[in-house]
Amino acid sequence: MVITRVLIAIAMEAEASPFVTHLNLQPDPTFFPPQTPFNAFRGKYNSCELTVVTNGKDTIHNTNVDNVGTVPAAVATFLALQKMNSTSEDADLLINAGTCGGFSRKGAAIGDVFLTTAVANHDRRIAIPDFTPYGIGRIESHSVENLAKHLNAKLGVCTTGNSLDFHELDSHHMLQNDASVKDMEAAAIAWSAELFGTPHFGVKVVTDIVDGDKPSHEEFLENLGTAAQSLQEALPKVIDFVCDKTHDEL
To answer: Is residue 233 flagged as an active site residue?
Structure first.
């Protein structure tokens, strides 16, 4: 099947805005149920119909704060896929785009673009037989080796947790996951995509070095603007490559 409809899930407004503006995508206020804080932007780029969804701002605790983490990511992705399915505009491909922490032990540096080979959780620890692999929740990404060569991007596993920082036990599980990068949404987005049978992968730009000597929150804020710009430059190249190709050609 040729790819003509692409859904792009981006958690934070600052990550999405440069890309949305660059491609002149327009807001669609009717896309999500009115009770949700999520945003959708739609338009055509070359031969592809694009839908970008973001998690929006928190409406319960602090309206200046982006909704981040696995809960809003899973719900926004599920509702977006459900909406497209109900209007016979099923997404041919889902791309989870955003920033991430990278591991120097896996060759990550600030500004690097990684494409995911798989996702997993590092903070869902359920020490009960059968529940342990469920908690880790490893899901393979769609193979994008040709795209990685085209972009000169790196490939690796993205590990997901609901905290920006981490402690020693998290570090152990991130190592067990063979993680190259770390984020707060990828595993949840992939889980929702799997429910609809939608092929998916992640495009992640490194803002901070997880196993470095700087506090993650300081390095993240310091490099967020630069990483968002790098993401804006990478995503059109990704769309150019995937549109009108079959999944096997990625």
So the answer is: no
Q: Catalytic pick from 112, 183, 208, 219? A: 208
**CATH fold of the domain at 5-246:** Rossmann fold (3.40.50)
User: What pLDDT digit, counting tens, does each position of 54-68 carry?
Assistant: 999 999 998 889 999
Q: Provide the β-strand partners of residue 41.
A: 27, 52
CA dihedral 130, 137, 193, 143 (to 10 degrees): -120
| Token pair belonging to 70 | 């696995």
Q: Which 3 state secondary structure label does DSSP give 50?
A: strand
Catalytic residue among 13, 15, 222, 240: 15
The whole-number pLDDT of residue 226 equals: 75
- If we measure between CA atoms, which residue out of 121, 85, 107, 101 comes closest to residue 193? 85
The answer to whether residue 208 is catalytic is yes
- Cα gap 113→181, rounded to integer Å: 10
- In tens, the pLDDT along 218-236 reads 767 777 777 777 888 899 9
The size of the chain, in residues, is: 250
Query: What is the pLDDT at residue 27?
Result: 97
Measure CA of the first residue to CA of the last residue in the chain; give whole Å: 12
In our burial notation (b when 16+ CB lie closer than 10 A, e otherwise), range 177-188 reads bebbbbbbbbbb
| Rounded to 5°, angle at Cα 193 from 78 and 158 | 115
In whole angstroms, what is the distance from residue 248 CA to residue 230 CA? 27
